[in-house]
Structure prediction request, 202 residues.
Amino acid sequence: MKSPQLKTEVQEFKRRRILEESRELFYSLGYEATTLDAIAEGLNVTKPFIYSYFKNKSEILRAICEIGIRSSLQALDEALATSLPPREKLRMIVESVTSIIIKDQKYIVVYEREEKNLQPRDAKQLMSLRKEFGIRLATLLETGARSGDFTVDDPLLTAVSIGGLVTWAASWYRPLGRWSQTDVTMHMIRNVERMVCSRTTP
Prediction:
């Protein structure tokens, strides 16, 4: 008999495999052209297997779209929880989130392409998460402005701009392309610092 922990791990693995296969199909074929039959065929399972984890294709799309923003929020919160000064927290956030965007690139691209196909309630909830990311980042920028680390006229607008800049990498980064992940990450850090820092970073 499986232990509760092992059973949970197995369920999480199966759910993750459904999302991975769906991500590949949504990315290459598009959401509307992808059927549950195709997802099941790609996994060599039956549709009832998929239904045991997701009610429908729309629920799969929501889960895919949620991955990047929840991971980014977690990375942001981990940085904010440190005792680092504002500038170092910001560098940590940009580095971590850029890594997430690159690692979860196809999830991000599917979200950007297929947001229109989300159920209205799901789209609203995901937008709330994105807004929360901007609000928390803006709070850090405000703190840095008070300490003299940053020069920011509109913290929230700047936070949204930073989020957009970093997320943009998902649309053009190529694993075997001209720029490595380190190149892209350092580029993002430098550009964000140019946006907000009042002094040249050592």
Q: What stands out?
A: The mean pLDDT is 93. The two ends are 58 Å apart (CA to CA).
